[in-house]
Task: inverse folding
């Protein structure tokens, strides 16, 4: 491992998203070589922290971005003026609102290194004019899962609800992660409706919460539930802050199902976490053969059958067939903890190498 010291910016939110969790875990994996600074506009503390490091690490997009973007910009400017590195990790690009990309751009231009969460994100960025003037020091890093199965499970009310539904003979189809339009949660509702028409008693569990934004996400979601004839057969857990409670919920799911725009990519951390639970995950295949080439854990989970791929453009009936086939299917063993450790080692080695 290298000797570079890093300051990792994190937010002060309690309901963390995947990007925020990655920021905190990255700092922890660097151990003594990293310190964190919360985006609370304590500028004296920020400037003191920057003095003792070789580089600044910023993950985008950040939580509460409208309130939190001035401080990363000040930090990046200070780091560059001090001759330090600025390492920007982009987890999304084209999927972000154009106004969000606009205000992220100054920090991106100050970067001495750009890391991308997947080859698709790198390609999206490189197709823009911004790429022509940003640093050419770029790399793709594998994003490890933010959550791992705990030693002990603590069932909460939502897990008990699913257990009750299973006891009544229902097939529990699950999705883990935040609920937002681009995830096309309506397609999973369509899969459940298709199975219901075939005579399968289904229940759909969404383990996560709604993304608040300009769209009427929650209203549109429940309108889709009603339109699919699934009223009373769908439940949303809301934010779950405990790994012990979260993985207890996962144990009550029969099959996880995702139909993603363009197919599976390495930035779908929710798919990775669901598969790490030991339950089968049905998802449409990547549109590119190289999409997962850099990510050993995704490849391993596909090999063991934890992740079961349907064609990228699979329709609802074919996906419903795959869900039925996956139900109760034996999944090969996989040492998730060791694979996760290897991924983190890979991330840190790549960052140290590019910084050096």
Result:
């Amino acid at each position: 491992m290298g000797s570079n010291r890093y300051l990792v910016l994190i937010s002060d939110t309690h309901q963390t998203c995947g990007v925020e969790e990655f920021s905190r875990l990255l700092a922890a994996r660097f151990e003594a070589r990293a310190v964190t600074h919360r985006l609370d506009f304590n500028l004296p503390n920020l400037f003191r922290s920057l003095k003792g490091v070789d580089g600044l690490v910023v993950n985008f997009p950040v939580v509460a971005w409208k309130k939190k973007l001035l401080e990363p910009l000040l930090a990046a400017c200070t780091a560059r003026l001090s001759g330090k590195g600025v390492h920007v990790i982009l987890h999304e690009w084209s999927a972000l609102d154009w106004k969000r990309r606009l205000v992220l751009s100054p920090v991106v231009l100050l970067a001495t290194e750009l890391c991308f969460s997947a080859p698709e994100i790198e390609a999206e960025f490189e197709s823009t004019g911004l790429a022509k003037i940003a640093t050419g020091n770029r790399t793709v890093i594998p994003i490890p899962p933010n959550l791992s199965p705990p030693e002990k499970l603590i069932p909460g009310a939502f897990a008990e609800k699913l257990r009750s539904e299973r006891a009544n003979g229902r097939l529990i189809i699950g999705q883990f992660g935040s609920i937002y339009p681009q995830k096309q949660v309506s397609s999973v509702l369509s899969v459940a409706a298709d199975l219901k028409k075939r005579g399968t008693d289904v229940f759909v569990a969404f383990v996560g919460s709604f993304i608040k934004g300009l769209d009427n996400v929650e209203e549109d979601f429940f309108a889709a539930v009603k339109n699919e004839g699934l009223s009373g057969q769908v439940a949303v857990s809301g934010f779950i802050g405990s790994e012990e409670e979260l993985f207890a919920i996962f144990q009550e799911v029969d099959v996880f199902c995702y139909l993603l725009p363009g197919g599976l990519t390495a930035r779908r951390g929710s798919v990775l976490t669901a598969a790490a639970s030991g339950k089968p995950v049905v998802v449409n295949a990547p549109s590119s053969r190289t999409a997962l080439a850099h990510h050993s854990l995704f490849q391993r989970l596909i090999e063991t059958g934890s992740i079961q791929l349907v064609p990228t453009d699979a329709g609802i009936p074919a996906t419903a067939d795959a869900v039925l086939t996956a139900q109760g299917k034996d999944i090969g063993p996989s040492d998730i903890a060791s694979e996760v450790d290897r991924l983190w080692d890979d991330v840190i080695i790549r960052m140290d190498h590019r910084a050096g």
Notes: Residues 193 and 228 are 6 Å apart (CA to CA). The longest strand covers residues 55-60. The domain at 6-140 is CATH 3.40.50 (Rossmann fold).
